[in-house]
Request: fold
Amino acid sequence: MAVIRVELAGRGYDVHVGRGLLDEAGTLARDFIRKDRVSAVADSNSHAAHGAQLEAALGATGVSVDWFITQPGEGAKSWSVLEKLVDWLLDRGVERGDHIFALGGGVVGDLTGFAAAVLKRGCGFVQIPTTLLAQVDSSVGGKTAINTSAGKNLVGAFHQPALVLADTATLDTLPPREMGAGYAEVIKYGILGDAKFFAWCEVNGAKVTARDPAALEYAVTQSVKAKARIVAEDERETTGTRALLNLGHTFGHALEAETGFSEKLLHGEAVAMGMVLAARYSARRDYIALDDAARITAAIDRAGLRSEIASLGITCTGAELAAHMLHDKKMDAGTLPFILLRGIGEAFVDKHVSMEDVSAFLREQLQAH
Ligand code: GLY
Reply:
């Protein structure tokens, strides 16, 4: 078990990581429960898998749970579901000092967090992430959002949770593909800022995706520590430090857009390929050696993730792929900042990337391998 503090003046909070700690939710969340009932949000999968366990844990301290249950999938991050959720919370008399519980993956956490951000100008919430991706990334750091017809995560708020409980045992039932997609965000912390952790991932990545309990707990703990450090330094992504977490996301966004943000390519899978592209593009610009890019590719392959975009079977041109990037919400005053590498464990923001060069690079990558 580990407890990691996200140090934010006046808004700091603990992230607990460990196997079986959902059973202790009543005690761990005690300070954030003021009444004998809490409001909790889950999707039908996370509710079926872990809802009764949360009810039992809170029930042991005399607290019962009222559920708002969504359909699984990105569709829940919508204006219409947000409206229903907010109305439901208001009907239940939720007050500013109350905390709403989010039990599920990134979609449930983002929706609940955004509802908490706007309800009565802001009430509390507790994150209980049940996917690897949510445990190592989205449940920590306070980014909350819904999607609109213009794109993903375009309406949201920075709103920090009061507590995060990451029980690694909840990952026992996660589909293997989602373990892989979450692992992309784990290895990302090594590639962007911690060469030693990357070397650990090279050796242990397959153990993490195979859910070896010790390897999994270590990976989640190290990832949360890295994210907590970055968020404490640059909560609102204004200094460039938090932007480093977007490593692989700009290239990955183009791949997700080209595959229609569909099951064909999960977000984490796109990030894995995107990190390979960012590494190879860094080598093309002579920032890193080709050998370093090859090491990153091999580590991603070894964890069972696909690294080559040619494997996607997409038929677009390099220029068409690059064009998707211009719709990325990270566009800043007409330029698109890229997160590139000066070495393994040394990411930086490059604001001077030529989109013509990126198009040519992507054309080669689409043809290669
Ligand atoms: N997932 C990127 C961030 O939290 O900034």
